Amino acid sequence: MAQRWPERLWVVRHGESLGNVARDAADAAGAHLIETGGRDVDVPLSPLGEAQAESLGHWFRGQRPEVILASPYARARRSAEIIRDAAGLALPVCVDERLREKEFGILDRLTRAGIEALHPDQAALRGILGKFYHRPPGGESWCDVILRLRSALDTIVLHHAGQRVLVVAHQVVVLCLRYLLERMDEAAVLAVDREADVPNCGVTEYRFDPDDGPNGALVLHRANWVAPLRAEGTPVTAEPERVTGAR
User: Fold this and answer.
1) Are 174 and 13 in contact, with CB atoms under 8 Å apart?
2) pLDDT tens digits along 23-51
3) By CB atoms within 10 Å of each CB, which of 60, 141, 176, 232 scores lowest?
4) Residue 196: DSSP 8-state
């Protein structure tokens, strides 16, 4: 039987963005709004984020991805381009909107303090439902993200079976792909979320195991791996999943 899965799948969170920096400043000031200067989709990498992506790209020289997929958000797309160039790969970065950041709707760009002050009903509802099921008006729950990622995985299987695939996206996307690939339930993925933050330019890697199940499967090799950054002395940044904010 023909191999159904990619030979290797790397899922990488984008480098540190100026939105990450702005959110830290807003939190420190007790502000309600994260000043990103425009749409979340357009928030660029910080200089440190560019350095993180370049360091990771040097490691990918030896891994040789054959396919690069990225979220359309500027910070993810640019991270993928820097990784590709630093790895010396002559590949296009294929943008897939299904890999985009979780949409926050009316809570977009608000800090936790801003949500509690401006939308206390949503803060209370999230406390009842939890982050997995809470969907703010105009936004998405984790379940909604998982639904679109099921489709994205189907496309990867259809077009890239047997290949080495790199995906560059966002923290929630990394966690939701883990939910799907490792066949988790709500409790399991939230436990993973509590255990460790997804670092900027951290690598979660899966390798195909032909003996896992009747048709083989992708098996987790490592998660949140940042050794390529540490090897070059590039600072590692990681932030906990929060209610909202550019990530």
Assistant:
1) yes
2) 888 888 888 888 887 899 999 999 999 99
3) 232
4) -
